[in-house]
Request: fold
Amino acid sequence: MARHSKLQKQILNLYRHFLRAGRDKPGFVPRIRDEFRENAGIKKTDFMHVEYLLRRGQRQLEQLRDNNTKQLGSFSRPDPRAGSRDPD
Amino acid sequence: MAARVLQQCVRTLARPSLRLSAANLAAPSAAPSAAPHRPVSFAADSRRTRWLGLSPVPSVGVLCRQYSDLPPLTLETIKDRVLYVLKLYDKINPENLQTTSHFMKDLGLDSLDQVEIIMAMEDEFGFEIPDGEAEKLMTPEEIVQYIADKKDVYE
Reply:
């Protein structure tokens, strides 16, 4: 993969801006990384999806950069496959 | 203002010698108006300025305050720092890390990881790397060369 397509370059740019913006606010960086990692598996040909995610990401970046955003937290559901234990 | 503080330090350090010379001067002089009860500082003032004017005090000034710059960069130090940052990255196996190991072919990273690595390098060395050039840096060796180019470090 010698050269990135224009879309790939935009995605990488967006990733870089996100990481820089989220550096000082706690809780954003793992979420950013997970989100990008998860969507990295989309096929190159499915450019509609990719462009949609790109626009969504840009809007979210504006929200992140807003001064009123302070931190991010998330709930995670325990993996239902990891053994079945009744909380009795 | 820092200069004034510096001068204060110099004066307090040099005061004993001034007092001595002022006493020598005041004794034989017959003028009582500049009485010995006048604090030494009056006589010392004129002596002080003359004395300071005569001989600058570089060594004493150095004792008061030292300003320092970052340690100079050499190719060796750049390489060490780059490899250190890479070893701290959790997706890289430190055993098979060498300066010539390609991020994507040898270490199995993808372009998102490469962006993170370049950002870590930017943080380490304190200057921004533009995107167009950042995406071309695929081995630690290339990173070292690029930083050496930007920081004007020659062999």
